[in-house]
Amino acid sequence: MFNNLYTANSSSLGKLEDWKQNAFDQFKIKMTDKGRPFPCIPATVGFAKDQLRYGFADDPRKPESIQQSAALLREFTEHSREFGSYTSLIVFYKTPDDLRVEEYEQLFWEQLTGVSENDEAEWPKDIPKDPHHSLWEFCFHGEKYFVYCATPAHKNRQSRHFDTMMLAITPRWVLKELMKKEPLASRMKSQIRKRLQKYDSITIHPDLNSYGADDNFEWKQYFLRDDATTISKCPFHRLLGSFKNK
Hints:
Layout: H1 18-32, H2 41-48, E1 53-57, H3 63-79, E2 89-93, H4 101-117, E3 138-140, E4 143-150, E5 166-171, H5 172-179, H6 184-199, H7 218-222, H8 235-239
Helix pairs in contact: 3-4
């Protein structure tokens, strides 16, 4: 374990307070279920190889949770290349279970916005600042990331359901490595979509797309609703003017 990050083999994982231990145990079950395999193949490989890193944050409605998330991501960013080619940061939040999907959506964007406000590094020059540009993606501490959010309120889209609010934050360099090997990358993408069709009781969300495609917007994929709807304007964009790294 680093200052704030855990591995699946961290001895202290068995000494966590109950909600944290339960969150990790449920994540392990989800990643290792052979009868109903989780759709994101790289995530299951990363778990099996013990290349994922884990952190915990308070109730996402509390301001201190943003500071904790930023500290976790800063530490992960500084060491991620030491963890392996399937690494991601998994953040579990101490979560109320009586919120609606749309309320979690608002909390998610508050977290992402707040984390960015705590970023002391400049926004990468090759990434547009406007989320409504096809090449935009979330950046922190000079690194580019894909962000995935799961919540207890998701029911139809089980691929986005978890017992706590959870973020999986994956470096772009990890995704680039995965996409390098054609046709392996194409087969994996096809397999992921097949798993999604079986895993969820609803059709694949229309916002799922490929980074860099002219009709793709990464931010729309970060938080998928439990139906086929989506918000029309990125909340991160609305608040971008207040960022120090603008």
